[in-house]
Design goal:
There is one protein chain. By secondary structure, this protein is mostly beta strands. It folds into 2 domains: about 35-65, no CATH class; about 65-180, Sandwich (Immunoglobulin-like). The protein has 1 helix and 12 strands. The strands form 3 sheets. Strands 4, 5, 8, 10 and 12 form a 5-stranded mixed β-sheet that branches. A 4-stranded antiparallel β-sheet has the order 7-6-9-11, with no helix packed on it.
Length: about 180
Amino acid sequence: MPKPSGKIFISIIVLAVVAGSAIFYFRKKPEIKQIACSQEAKLCPDGSYVGRTGPDCEFKACPPVPAASSTDGGAGILPYNSGVRGTVLLGPACPVERIPPDPGCADKSYSVNISVFHAGASALYASGKSDENGIFQFSLPPGSYTLKAESGSMFPRCGSADVTVGPIGYATTTIFCDTGIR
């Protein structure tokens, strides 16, 4: 007959192995949380784009944009060496087209308020007014923009212009306003 102490020792070993296995099997495993953010991008005021990041998939912060300068007449953003300049024309000036064309019926320059928006955005980026010769200029960072002339009444009805501003230099455009004369 084996000694009782041997049976107890073997029972303790078996019990320890079973308990250790149970603890290992039932213990909570750490959760590995993987996050996949969408691939969408946000257009920043300076023309650059930022993506989503972090545990909450929030957009990264846009780089700061310098404030408008009073030396620019409030018509743009400085210190960029780029932007857009152009002319606003009002026409037709005569009800009937003439052959040869009458110089008095040529489109006329027009002074009107102009709003600048980043392409596809609804928030106003800059605003100004064309002068008495219809000429305007905005100092802008590189990017795509939509310029809208607004007469404030039904006629003349002014159009808009889409422009792309490069890193250096000024894009040029012409905005046409319709007098309604037919």
